[in-house]
Amino acid sequence: MTLLEVKSLNTYYGESHILRDVDLNVKSGEMVCLIGRNGVGKTTLLKSLIGLLKQKKGDIYLIGENINRKAPHQRARKGMAYVPQGREIIPYLSVEENLMLGMESLPGGLSKNKKIDPFIYDLFPILKDFLDRKGGDLSGGQQQQLAIARALLGKPQLLLLDEPTEGIQPNIVLDIENAINKIIRDTGIGVLLVEQHLHFVRQANRYYAMQRGGIVASGNTSELSQAVIDKFLSV
Amino acid sequence: MELFVDILFNGISFGSVYLIAALGLAIVFGLMGVINLAHGELIMVGAYSTFVTQLLFKEPFLKPFFGSYIIVSIFVAFIFSATVGILLERLIIKRLYGNPLETLLGTWGVSLFLQQFVRSFSLSFGTSVIISIISGVSLKNIFPKSIKERFNEKYIRLSNWIIPIFIGILSNNFLATNIPRIRRPDSRLVDVTSPKWMRGPFEIYGESFPKTRLVIIAITVISVIAVLIFLNLTEWGIRIRAVTQNRSMSECLGISTKKVDTITFGIGSGLAGVAGVAVSLLGSVGPDVGQLYIVPCFMVVVLGGVGNILGTVLASFGIGILTDIFASGRLLTLFPNAPSFVFNTLNFFSTSSMAVVLIFSLIVIFLQFKPQGLFPQKGRTVE
């Protein structure tokens, strides 16, 4: 089933044209990776998908429904979850409250869903020890785990991940990779991932390569050649 | 000992007026970052609605319950001020988020508008305008579904307008015929008579405290506790804190930030209304009663540390106690042998208005050294 379909998306930052005719789709149960050097518009694309930036032209379909005019909170309630670059944990809320906010996008919102589903403690055991700490006091890696857990608690159909391993110590990178793989296997959600880590990129099913705001190459990651890697990954 | 209790009581009772007046602003300015210069006028709305409630309780059918009108008027004032505040947010402030200078000018305009509104229109008219707005908003939600489905949507929408207007006209007629005092526009000061149980002093251990002051302290304490419970223990509290700390991420998590803004602003404005009840108990109420309180409110919130409710509490009690110490000239009686220039200086500041001048100058100097206030935000996130 096609979860996300993007047709000739164009986004501007003020006057400057960032995204040029982006076409892309994500099916359920697959991990799709977006690669490209810094400043080619990967983050802008994710922000346009969740609705933080308004597109000028083009259509976005989520599970067959056109969501062009929906606000971010409506898109979240329709099954899209977003883990931004830099985590964006709510700093002065406790870890528990941060996790509870993840359930705001469930039907009925926070008022009807108060119990944190323990499956996230299986994925990220460390969160259980920190429930009473302020979210802003966690380390970068812990915040990343919290951000992913928070997104998963909303039971999304589509998970948008923006550089989840950026600036994080290697053992936590592995934890995060395993957790995302497990979630895809268990629940069959789709994941759209922006990533620079070659090891993580290799685990995706398909890739899209971006250059100057447009998609210039795509295919299965198994066919990802050294030439493409050299061209689009900044490692 | 007696002196100490005296200072403490007077200081707390001064401070609690500041606190109740600033509590709403601590939410609107402290949490949302909106500079609302119309906050004083929301206090005025609360004070006037206390006055109207009180007159209503003098009518024959409510006369036996006159003693309890204060409690009723707290709710009335909260709802009325919240309604005006939500209207203000929806019509003006919503469009100005992120533009502090424009917000400042816009809300100042609203403050002038509200002052003039009270002068130019009768209280019965003002009250019925607010009543019709409240009924207009709530009607949509309380219409039974069976009626909604039976008629064309057009008629339902039309009746959503007609019925509130009708309710407004009826309530205007009712108030104007029954309470002649509020029939005509009147910009003179009005006075609220407190019920019998609130008059006179209250005695403990030979010390006597005016009961009005005790009631104000009680209202303040209950409001602060209610606000803390609301912000920290309810789901709306979590939403509000999330939105004030990271607006765009909260939106991405599925929180309707517009709704949260409206509710936050409504609660802050409602608290201004509760402050209006306290203000009306202290003295006469006029169209510019809010102007007295707006500057101290901002001072208290900034001194306490923006976004910190407990800081606001401590700051207002601190200001209250210091004001009392200087204004009553207690230092003069304590240190009668102080050098003459100190004595003269203290003597100069020992009137209530000069004490306020002194305290606020001290706050300004203090903020030069600690611009974040008494309790700045701490932790890894600040960096």
Report on this structure.
The complex is a heterodimer of chains A (235) and B (383). Chain A has helices spanning 42-50, 72-77, 95-102, 109-112, 119-123, 126-129, 140-153, 170-187, 198-201, 226-232; strands at residues 2-13, 16-27, 31-35, 55-62, 65-66, 80-83, 158-162, 190-194, 206-211, 214-220. By secondary structure, chain A is an alpha/beta fold. Chain A has a domain at 2-88 and 157-233: Rossmann fold, CATH 3.40.50. Chain A has a six-stranded mixed sheet, with helices on both faces. In chain A, strands 2-1-4-5 form a four-stranded antiparallel sheet, with helices on one face. In chain A, helix 3 (95-102) runs parallel beside helix 7 (140-153). The radius of gyration of chain A is 17 Å and the shape is globular. Chain A starts with a strand and ends with a helix. The model of chain A has no long low-confidence stretch (mean pLDDT 89). By secondary structure, chain B is mostly helical. Chain B has one domain. In chain B, strand 1 (201-204) and strand 2 (207-210) form a beta hairpin. The A-B interface holds A 50-52, 71-73, 76-77, 82, 84, 88, 90-93, 97, 100-102, 104-105, 109-111, 114, 134, 136-137, 150, 154 and B 235, 238-239, 241-242, 245-246, 248-257, 377, 379-381. Chain A: Keywords: Amino-acid transport, ATP-binding, Nucleotide-binding, Transport. Chain A: Residues 4-235 form the ABC transporter domain. Chain A: One of its GO terms (biological process) is L-amino acid transport. Chain A: Belongs to the ABC transporter superfamily.
